[in-house]
């Protein structure tokens, strides 16, 4: 396997979501990238109750263009693992070949009645692990996706 797992946290700008934090880990869960991102637009909703990200975190973040370049480089030629990857790639304004995506929100084995299940539920069921206790953390979610993928990669 030559794979990485990606997860992003977002904040609101009007009726849009914009990138606030990005985490990428390797097959062993080691951090390849884990950083806050300076907003590219005025933030109207920090969504702090979901992921505890504050204005202060983003002030000290890296520029969007720098982060986008780093992520693009990390994904090149690799299998991309995650949950609802289209949202993450969308806020990064990046694409990835469909045949190299492993998205737990889209794989029939991990869905219920044709609908995606939460990563929290999948972690509990397949890994006997509790995540997102109180808040979301993109690093924890990326590591969980990789752990789940390593356990189930033969399904793809």
UniProtKB/TrEMBL annotation:
The keyword Nuclease applies. Keywords: Exonuclease, Hydrolase, Nuclease, Nucleus, rRNA processing. It comes from the Eukaryota. SUPFAM superfamilies: Ribonuclease H-like. SMART domains: EXOIII. Transmembrane segments: none annotated. Belongs to the REXO4 family. This is RNA exonuclease 4. One of its GO terms (biological process) is rRNA processing. PANTHER family: RNA EXONUCLEASE 4, RNA EXONUCLEASE REXO1 / RECO3 FAMILY MEMBER-RELATED. One of its GO terms (molecular function) is 3'-5' exonuclease activity. Residues 2-156 form the Exonuclease domain. It is found in: Nucleus.
